Amino acid sequence: MPTKERLYLFDTTLRDGAQTNGVDFTVADKLRVLSLLDRLGVDYVEAGYPGANPTDTQLFAEKHEAKARLTAFGMTKRPGRSASNDPGVAALLAAHSDAICFVAKSSAYQVRVALETTKEENLASIRESVEAAIAAGREALVDCEHFFDGFKEDRDFALACARTAYEAGARWVVLCDTNGGTLPHEVEAIVAEVVKVVPGTNVGIHAHNDTEQAVANSLAAVRAGARQIQGTLNGLGERCGNANLCSLIPTLLLKKDYAARFDIGVGEEALGELVHVSRTLDEMLNRAPDRHAPYVGESAFATKAGIHASAILKDPATYEHIAPEKVGNRRRVMVSDQAGRSNVLSELERLGVPVDKKDPRISRLLEEVKEREALGYSYEAADASFALLARRMLGSVPDYFAVERFKVNVERRYNAQGELVTVAEAIVKVKVDDETMISAAEGNGPVNALDVALRKDLGKYQPFISGLHLTDYRVRVLNGGTEAVTRVLIESADETGDRWTTVGVSPNIIDASFEALLDSITWKLLKEGAPA
């Protein structure tokens, strides 16, 4: 059996990914993500830009144990001064890192307009910066910014930048599609030219996703000879993001054209944690996971058409390009108004609802789903609400508690500091057995106040819901006018990491939200086996 070629993964979630609008990592966040990346088995982690901001400066002030090569990012020396007299280079050399990635212009236009210097001085900056890093005992990488546009403009100069970095001793010469506008066939052709002057075992690709081509461009570069891929978890990054490692890793491991040829250092066990890693990052950033993301999205292996569901149950490979379990995902055969018996039976089996396939109530349940979806309910995205509906029709769901009434008040007023604030207050009266509890709470909105009040005191059931919390809230107005119907989907999670979604429908958004909240708590109690 031929020896596989080594393909290296360079993760820049903590540096390039941190440029995503709304993303802000603390030092603790960065160390946690570093741990996740170590579990995956990436080779390099670019953790930040020391000297550029207090967080990154603090991170690199201490040495951190990691399997991956911790990499500091920064500029090559400025034109007109030596590397030893450049504060940016000094900050990189002082950082506790295994490697340094210098960003360097490789476009003649950028050198002339942005740096306002000469081609010769730019090449000297690349050469002297790399030599300074190597002299300090660091592995050097050069990220050739604007490389593909620069190559199209001035082929010889772009190649000179790459060659200079390599000849100075750079371990990796990384070709960056900075504006994300290059297409796969162009990437493959240009990288093929680069590897004629720099060995492919020293060439990397850094693709941005502005034309939705970053993953394709990365694979095109590998086909042409590049042996390092730079990307981020969940495709984070400025503008439209970077090449998504959550798509690239399983493609390289599971698609035979790549799996038979390359070793990427990520094992089968680590691949099985990919969904967990992806969603952990989203939770840290308080972002809702992309449900339609390849491989790791909730809908990546989902179908709701009855004829497709039947085929999937007989032969999963019919509509699934890989087994979802390989990346830690699962198959979802959704229940909706387009569903057939196969969808219902498959979902009941997954949810652990015992049922006889010949039970005539299955057909009635399917009809009930279709009738309710005509009213505005959506069970394809609300698995817990569907499970409760099914259990009520096919068996029973305990009446754990009864809500006798609730009240919500929203008031805009001046607080003690004279600031104008809006405060939501909720009161909920609940009966558990023969005991009545009245709870009040404030929240940053009426739904939040209701949620806090409802979960504040459920008597004997309080221990069962202590780890329950809401993770996502989505509202859709189904028709306009004075008789508008509102659908609310609430995603909940608990201390075990389990997630589930419930639905509520009403002309009143508060009423719809409360219905979804009730289902969420009831599902949690049922899941925990709480006594009736």
From TrEMBL:
Q: Which domain of life is it from?
A: Bacteria
**Catalysed reaction per UniProt?**
pyruvate + acetyl-CoA + H2O = (3R)-citramalate + CoA + H(+)
Q: What is its EC number?
A: 2.3.3.21
Q: In which pathway does it act?
A: Amino-acid biosynthesis; L-isoleucine biosynthesis; 2-oxobutanoate from pyruvate: step 1/3
Q: What InterPro entries would the database entry show?
A: 2-isopropylmalate_synth_dimer (IPR013709), AIPM/Hcit_synth_CS (IPR002034), Aldolase_TIM (IPR013785), Citramal_synthase (IPR005675), LeuA/HCS_post-cat (IPR054691), LeuA_allosteric_dom_sf (IPR036230), PYR_CT (IPR000891)
**Record-linked Pfam families:** HCS_D2 (PF22617), HMGL-like (PF00682), LeuA_dimer (PF08502)
Spell out the family assignment given in the record's similarity comment: Belongs to the alpha-IPM synthase/homocitrate synthase family.
**Designated name of the protein:** Citramalate synthase
Organism in which the protein naturally occurs: Xanthobacter aminoxidans
